[in-house]
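Support case: user asked for a sample of complex input and structure output to validate their parser. Sending the pair below.
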Amino acid sequence: MNAEQKNQERYEIRFSGSGGQGLITAAVVFAEAVGVYDGKYVCQTQSYGPEARGGKSKAEVVISSSPIDYPKALELDLLLAMNQAACDAYFYDLKQNGILIVDSGLVEQYPTSRIIAIPFTDIAKDEIGRGLVANMVALGAVGLLSGQVDLTNLEKALLDRVPRGTEEMNSKALQRGIEEARKINLDDLPRSIMSDDDEV
Amino acid sequence: MPIPAQALRHKYLRHNKKFPHVWCPGCGNGIVMGALLRAIYRLDIDQDDIVLASGIGCSGRMPTYLDFNTLHTTHGRALTFATGVKLARPELNVVAIMGDGDATAIGGNHFIHAARRNLNLTAIIINNSIYGMTGGQYSPTTPFGSKSTTSVYGHIEHAFSIAELAVTAGASFVARATVYHADLVDRLIEQAIKKRGFAVVEVISNCHVQYGRRNKLGGAVDMLKSFKEQAVTVSRAEKMKPEELEGKTTIGVLADRDLPISTEEYKKVRSQARATKERV
Amino acid sequence: MYDHGQQRHLLQGNEAIVQGALTAGCRFFAGYPITPASEIAEQLSNELPAVDGTFIQMEDEIASMGAIIGASLSGVKSMTATSGPGFSLMQENLGFACVAEVPCVIVNVMRGGPSTGLPTSPAQGDVQMARWGTHGDHPIVVLAVSTVMDSFTITIKAFNIAEKYRIPVILLSDEVVAHTRECVELPDKSEVKVIDRIRPSVPPDWYKPYEGDARGVSPMASFGDGYRHHVTGLIHDVMGFPTQQPREVEDFHLRMAKKISRGFPDIQMTKGFYLDDADFFIVAYGAVARSALRAVQDAREAGFKAGLLQLITLFPFPRRAVTPLLQQCRSVLIPEMNMGQISREVQRVNQGACNVVKYNRVDGKFITPREIYDQLIKL
């Protein structure tokens, strides 16, 4: 249907996990790279208040080549889930051939075989030395796999937003995420998030 | 040197439309208004540089009659408007004139916060222990046991001491007088306007029509006489025992201290902000 | 796609309001913390002192409203920002700003109500309150924003209307617009039209602060400029002094109404989408207008002749834009995040010409394009 076609002009990403994982920051950096540096239309929103405490928090980025009317995600092209609760809750918002990326150290049960699992938090802890920058490792992976952002611009936007003195650590985290994502071949993934039986 | 009353009248009263005023014969508001004018005259402040703000009630009408920049605001809010004026034009002398209900009931929160904030403002509170304009209902300063149109069986609540409240809330200058002590009111208002910081002058006044009559306190003159009898100066009060001070009114300067003024402090904020923006 | 350049910024709606206010010349803000409007106060506390402006956090919203009126009377463009509960407290002094004709801007970032309601959820429940919240008969201007760019441009427009007509202007945002980040290209300051109040040119002795010119608007002297006039919340004569004379009271009210009605073409702002050949149309405002636009585009692609009239000015209700469409179309759909506060205005001007259909959502959730689309194709 036409609505479907229209939506294909949009590219929708949701960064999800628990409050405190820095998902809003990741989404803002992504939006800034796409909007300010790449020059596309972009809308960035997030869950607020009690909704954002504890269990699951989300931040979204909608990207388009034309002005964006509805600012929130309608059908996700890419879902990043940094914990099990977010993965379970938001998996159903993905498009059929959308991309699901999870932190393999924090999400144990996979809802589909069409999944990209990377241990973002472990990489951040073990290789960068700060678990806190797991969001930036994930951002690197989302940046590469979404194919929606110039990665140089993504780094520029990142360096603009992070506190002084943490630039090197954050940019290293971002690069590790990109590197990790390069190992993934999207064409090797199962075609759809639903099995053939699910399709009506 | 005494100030010629006629000079005051000609200089400061608005003659184009607004007399006679709304106050009852014998009302203490006129004494306070006269004291304010004498203080301003003595301080020789340009009329253009004075903003007189008021709230609602009998005292609220005072600015209407006076030839300054005048602002008759909503009930209890005189100090909030005055705060905006002072912050926008710190060079102006801003005086808020309020009643007891105005300043300490509906405007009580604004009053204590204005004192805490310590802007360079002057607050004059005419305390006549009653809501006069609305017909004699009890106010936050109506004494325990008094009769009013909303406490016909005697008032069961306790009164605020406005000046003491201002001291506790952090005002730079706090003083009290009664309308019997007109000269003292003059001097205290003069000191308050000169004071850099939030300055409060509480003036105990008579509402013989709404308060005195219901409580058998006599007419205006009788009430003024009782103010004279009840008044104790601050220095004398210091030497008196609490039980001796029962039923007395302490008059004079209760607090006079130099504290940072928020308009001055804000200048520092501005230069810090400019410096920060320039660095970016 | 935008041109590349350094002028683009990723801003939240609330941040864009701040930028708009500063561009319009706002140099005074008084407020009290409240979700979802606090970002406006936080940013202005940072920005205003750097441009010789003043920020103050007052003890409540009553005081905030009083302070901005005091500052505006002293010649400084002033604003406050709040949400429903604070907006309730502001109504008293908002009335003062109406009667004393004090230009100022009041931002209400709407959240779910009544009372404490749903502090972090979007809603549009304060629309009629913005119109009639303060007591007494009074005209008022209420504007609504739906994008981050709107939040910038309409804030400037709000200040311009306030200054031009000497009135308080209410700017309604909502939680969705306030917290959405979008990329905006802020125009160079030289390209922005900024209107300042007219100041008296006559000597002080001749000044009549409430006489009104041909437009019904009086030049406005600031405190401290030598005009020593009287400002009161009482109904007043042309000199500003209280009056109860029926003739003067009536003159006052009629001038209040006249100055706004003369300004209709300037004040009433709407945006039309796909309306020329529309058989049915949507009336929407605020964040919901965004969902509605998508629904209309989808309907067009599915072969339905749908259109959208987006209201930027909610009050005075832009009947000149709405009425011809009510004549042209069979049906009108009004989606709102309330029980129907603008639909009653549409019904009022409709007078039976068109089939008026409401779509309301009051569960704290933002209306989606799909819901509107489903309603639209039923028309």
